[in-house]
Amino acid sequence: MKKSNLYGALLISAFFNSAVFAQTNVQSLNEVLIQGNRLQIQLSEQNRNVDVITAQEIQKLPAKSVNEILGYVSGVDIRQRGPFGTQADISLDGGSFEQTLILLNGIKITDQQTAHNTLNLPIPTEAIERIEILRGPAARVYGVNSLTGAINIVTKNPESTALFANVFAGSNFKKDEEGNGDLYNGRGVQLGGSIAKEKHTHQLYTSHESGTGYRYNTAYHNNRIFYQGQIKPDEQNKIDVLAGFVRSSFGANGFYAAPGDKESKEVVSTTLASVKSKHLINGRFTLSPQVGYRYNFDDYRYYRYDLSKARSRHHSNAVTVEINGDYRMDFGEFGFGVETRYEQINSTSIGKHERENYGLYTEFRTDKIERVNLNVGAYVNYNSVYGWQVFPGLDFSYLLKPGFRFVFNSGTSQRIPSYTDLYLQQPGNLGNADLISEKAYQIEGGFKYDANRLSAKAIVFYRNIDDFIDWTKDVITNPWLANNTGSIRTTGFNFQTQYLLTKNAVYNWNLNVGYTYLSPEFKDQPSTQFSKYKIESLRHQLVAKLGWQYRNWSALLAERYQERISYKDYFLTDLRVNFNQKQFDYYLDFQNIFDKTYIEAAAVPMPGRWFSLGVKYRLDAH
Question: Which residues belong to the signal peptide in this entry (predicted)?
């Protein structure tokens, strides 16, 4: 047995031998309202396979960015090309990084140039209330590009006037390869403040992270500013305003064109803004309009010291307008919505392009049938390039006994090719203007169990994706070419359980274990082709988190195991230790404790062992 396997087995065994069940309350999580743009459904009543990461969980994780936080959820595949929130691709249940839709408070923020930029977010972790992860085709709920699921980041609405600060620094204590004699290191600071009044709230955050990286040419500098405000003139109306900016600059050694890009660098700037409101017209009818805007500037420099060669600059804009509503009747709830989205790009290597997308949503939900919870609907889409499409879906559950339900879901969706897929013209990568949209059908079923001290779910799914878009080539010396390469049929299994255990009022344990198995089968794809993305899919993924708290002390130990189709498997062990003293929180993070060598994307080796020390301060007005 490998040492890592032994460590993991001993950890879980030690926990079960020492833990004693006691009464706790998990109702706060079960009562979370999943933020659909039309129908608001409690997590405990969701028929879909949904995971929620709460603010309390985020505070305990050994993570300082959204990228790192999502890496602790089974079934979520984070493929990082740089650590510390620098650059990452995200996918769900074996899909590609282009097939997951990202939203901020229900507003789409996916990048039409390339999903490589989607996680370039201006949101500090301290501003996050929760992260909702919806698995499976989600067109019926969120529209196009939610082929394998959607991730919605929900920010906090402040309840008090307060000031906040978070300062941290870390290192692997290895010499910097740039030849300056320093150790590889990173540091950061987050500052924030909130104002909470009866009829309006405001919060403002700013942050800076920088470091020398962890190997040659991986230094990074990230700057963020984020504002959110809410005006609530009365109980029937509210208006939410959001704006943010992030600029990320990082060495991109080996990120996209290894081994020739050793001296490459990338600078990505993203601006987000949105206005949304909610109006209770009467006791049955609610109307919710929203407008979202996203601007992205991507400056890729193949030679960081010679900007006259192989430099690509991309400017893209996207505007989304939605009007959603729901009408509550005696026998159920009817949701409806219309949307329009305009996308544009001006690029030195992609050219100038624009397109429009229009959509119509309809949903109906009822729990008036004994033991049955039913939700059915469809999304009708028109795209200025790809024409009309209809995407129906259905989910339901049957209550077998209190707290124990059978759940079923069936849905369809599509993914429109990115501008990079369609039009990129570079020496090593060529887009294909003849690409058609990817289309998916998924069916899943399983069981969910919720009790006071235990929750668990086991879901089996089958998904078929037609016209899968990949970058391929027949000869290793040829450039990569975007193609519709056939079908991918994936059978998968997802299991998750959470125990909340308490010995007494000041001493408690908790355990969360998630496991995902994926079996993809490739159809109608030439075996002679080299593939850029399909070989990176996960096969096995296990995430176990053991939490402990005693008075002012707390700790979380995380063990992760991943095996991909074409990479060797690995275990990662991380730890956060926290001590609270009045307004101060002191924390110590140990990441990759056993210094494992591993790769998540392309040919980019990830950091080894890394230590961080930080302190948080919060001052509430009285």
Answer: 1-22
